[in-house]
């Protein structure tokens, strides 16, 4: 496939390398105009400047980029994969993206990100889900640049764990736009943004990002935990989140899907 990217950060670099190894062609990288390198062959600063032969766009740039570029991409009829699921916590953004996709007969594909078991959670909501809780624990450096810095001196934490957020998935996604996409994924798969409970923790005793889902309902009860590594060049970016984008494209292009 001929693929375009929004962003060129750690996740985008991982996904781009993986997809090129599979034989896909990278046709463009969409950036804000001030970040475009003069003379760079693939970089563009506006949706209108994208090549017209792109089969699918991949957003790896965060909430603001999805809100800014997603509607125009979808409205012109180009499918879009995103890991910026937390942006959908804003009802206005969610509605705009849906309307644009309808207008362009395009699809916004949501990559699962750094969490698993979402297929189980989606199946469970066919019955009655009584409760869904997500708990996210990261080393202190994984929360740098987030709202956690307003509550904790992250670089001085030596003992823990320290909870810096408790509330709904909607509040978590909007307050931690670069850190709570997993909470959004859990919410979208299960009870929704307002009925999914979230707890975010800085824990100096761990080196990996630990994600836990607990759910109860007609199906019974399950508890899922994953200890994930971050990408080497960005402690805030999950390796599994990057892998989930590649897996989503494999699913889209495959003839047999699970």
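-> sequence recovered:
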């Amino acid at each position: 496939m001929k693929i375009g990217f929004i962003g060129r950060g750690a996740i985008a670099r991982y996904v781009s390398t993986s997809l090129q190894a599979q034989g896909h062609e990278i046709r463009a990288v969409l950036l804000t105009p001030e970040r475009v390198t003069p003379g760079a062959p693939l970089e563009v600063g506006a949706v209108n400047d994208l090549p017209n032969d792109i089969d699918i766009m991949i957003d790896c740039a965060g909430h603001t980029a999805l809100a800014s570029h997603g509607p125009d991409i979808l409205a012109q009829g180009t499918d879009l994969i995103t890991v910026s699921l937390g942006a959908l916590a804003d009802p206005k953004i969610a509605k705009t993206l849906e309307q644009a996709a309808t207008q362009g007969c395009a699809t916004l594909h949501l990559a699962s990100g750094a969490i698993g078991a979402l297929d189980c959670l989606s199946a469970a909501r066919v019955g009655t889900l009584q409760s869904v809780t997500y708990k996210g624990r990261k080393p202190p450096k994984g929360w740098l640049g987030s709202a956690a810095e307003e509550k904790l001196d992250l670089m001085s934490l030596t003992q823990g764990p320290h909870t810096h957020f408790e509330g709904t998935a909607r509040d978590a996604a909007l307050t931690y736009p670069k850190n709570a996409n997993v909470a959004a994924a859990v919410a979208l798969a299960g009870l929704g943004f307002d009925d999914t409970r979230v707890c975010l923790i800085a824990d100096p005793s761990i080196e990996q990002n630990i994600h836990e889902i607990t759910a109860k309902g007609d199906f019974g009860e399950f508890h899922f935990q994953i200890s994930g590594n971050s990408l080497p060049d960005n402690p805030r970016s999950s390796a599994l989140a990057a892998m989930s984008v590649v897996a989503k494209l494999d699913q889209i292009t495959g003839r047999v899907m699970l």
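The helical segments are 10-21, 63-75, 91-104, 118-124, 169-175, 181-189, 239-253.
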